[in-house]
Design goal:
With about 100 residues, the chain is mainly beta. It has one domain (about 5-95): Roll (Ubiquitin-like (UB roll)). About 10% of the residues lie in helices and about 30% in strands. It has one helix at about 35-45; strands at about 5-10, 20-25, 55, 60, 65-70, 70-75, 90-95. The strands form 2 sheets. The protein has a 5-stranded mixed β-sheet, with no helix packed on it. A two-stranded antiparallel ribbon has the order 3-4. A hairpin with a 2-residue loop joins strand 5 and strand 6. Keywords: Cytoplasm, Isopeptide bond, tRNA processing, Ubl conjugation pathway. It is found in: Cytoplasm. This is Ubiquitin-related modifier 1 homolog. Pathway: tRNA modification; 5-methoxycarbonylmethyl-2-thiouridine-tRNA biosynthesis.
């Protein structure tokens, strides 16, 4: 069964996704539970339209991107190991601003 999620980008991160801030997505069914570690490459490959290197570094988000899971800092939720649940809201906020 597909997994519905809300994925949002703000603080400039939306520029990587064609300036679209909110995405209602359905992740395809897979054998193992979806985790943030499997969500990030999916976002890079399916939502990020330009400069994916500004979204991910290695297997995680780049420094300077704050990640919230259901309005809580992802560090409190287990970061990459958090198992996604139906209708979770994942928000990526860029804290880096040009000068």
């Amino acid at each position: 069964m597909p997994l519905p999620l809300i994925i949002e980008f703000s603080g400039g991160a939306e520029l990587l996704c064609g300036n679209v801030k909110k995405h209602n997505v359905e992740l395809p069914e897979q054998k193992d539970k979806w985790q943030v570690r499997t969500l990030l490459p999916w976002i890079r490959d399916n939502l990020v339209q330009e400069r994916p290197e500004l979204f991910m570094q290695g297997d995680t988000v780049r420094p300077g991107i704050l990640v919230l899971i259901n309005e809580a800092d992802w560090e409190l939720m287990g970061e990459l190991d958090y198992e996604l649940e139906e209708n979770d809201r994942i928000v990526f906020i860029s804290t880096l601003h040009g000068g």
